[in-house]
Amino acid sequence: MIALVQRVKTARVEVAGASVGAIGPGLLAFVCAEPADDENQARRLVDKLLALRIFGDEAGKMNRSLRDTAGGLLVVSQFTLAADTRSGNRPGFSGAAPAAQGLALYEAVLRFARERHGVVEAGVFGADMQVSLVNDGPVTIPLRID
Hints:
The chain is α/β, with parallel strands linked by helices. The chain has helices at 39-51, 66-69, 99-116; strands spanning 2-15, 18-23, 26-32, 55-56, 62-64, 72-77, 120-122, 129-144. The protein has one domain: 3-Layer(bba) Sandwich (D-tyrosyl-trna(Tyr) Deacylase, Chain: A), CATH 3.50.80. The chain is built from three helices and eight strands. Helix 1 packs across helix 3 (99-116).
């Protein structure tokens, strides 16, 4: 699985002008499933998201995790993370999982996250979403879970 993680002060996702998910301080995770992925990668991704030490401690060092801060987690599906831009100017997306598999793994990520963490919000799989955020730092980290 591929994820792009942003430490945020706030983040919100809207569909058709209506808010479907919003958090205060925490992590915004854009998530993409790949064809070889299964629930094992989804579980490992959630474990990494919750344990990633990218929040400041009392000394200002990145030593605290989402678990430590009890911050929010907003998960948004984004198949474009699998874009292949090696040739030409139009990205190819064959590296993303087929829609049915992508949906199942996105739902697995949400299920695992909600089992392990208090504040978990989500976008709508396959929807035209508008995401707004205030990146904190800025801190933006790409993750790949094989």
